[in-house]
Amino acid sequence: MILHQLFGDGEGKQTRSLRFKVIRPVSETLVVNEVAADYVGRKARDTTSGDVFSLFSFLVNESKEHFLALRLDSKNHIFCIDHVSAGSLNASIVHPRELYKSALLSSAAVVILMHNHPSNDPTPSREDLELTGRLREAGELLGVRVLDHVIIGSGCYVSLADRGLIG
Predict the structure, then answer these.
(1) Is residue 1 part of a domain?
(2) Would you say residue 15 lies in a domain?
(3) Rounded to an integer, what distance in angstroms lies between the CA atom of residue 19 and that of residue 37?
(4) For residue 153, what are the contacts with CB-CB under 8 A and spacing of at least 6?
(5) Is the pTM above the cut of 0.85?
(6) Residue 166: which residues within 8 A CB-CB, separation 6 or more?
(7) Which of 46, 91, 141, 147 could form a disulfide with 51 if both were Cys (CB 3.0 to 4.6 A apart)?
(8) In the structure, what pLDDT confidence band is assigned to residue 19 with cuts at 50, 70 and 90?
(9) Over 131-153, what HEC string results?
(10) Is the pLDDT of residue 135 over 60?
(11) CATH number for the domain including 114?
């Protein structure tokens, strides 16, 4: 199809207009006016499961499940945090499309998945394991590797990578 078939040739014919959606990546920089050492420490990378737990242990105070994704660059430095969804007392709906949309727009090489269990028991459910598998498969297709999935409970956590469930 050529342009004059879409819009007309301008010689007495009524022209048509087309409307397109333009998608633009939007991000926000959050400035924390507190001592960064209290949060991050002086490590080159904060990507071990213990580091992730210490950074996000505040999630134990939440009464709903919150699913977050940490975006990492090719050197495993965290450069972005994405709040993917907030769910109910014992569930959070996460679709690969929603998770990887912002990962692709931010050019993330790696993601660390993380969510809390309001029951304070971080034992992964069958649904947690199935979701992690689906997200890993989708990430492999897109070229974004899932490094870990950390489940946070009261004073403790479970790392699926530490348990050998993410290869």
Answers:
(1) no
(2) no
(3) 49
(4) 60, 116, 117, 119, 120, 121, 122, 123
(5) no
(6) 132, 136, 146, 147, 148, 149, 160
(7) 46
(8) confident
(9) HHHHHHHHHHHHCCEEEEEEEEC
(10) yes
(11) 3.40.140.10
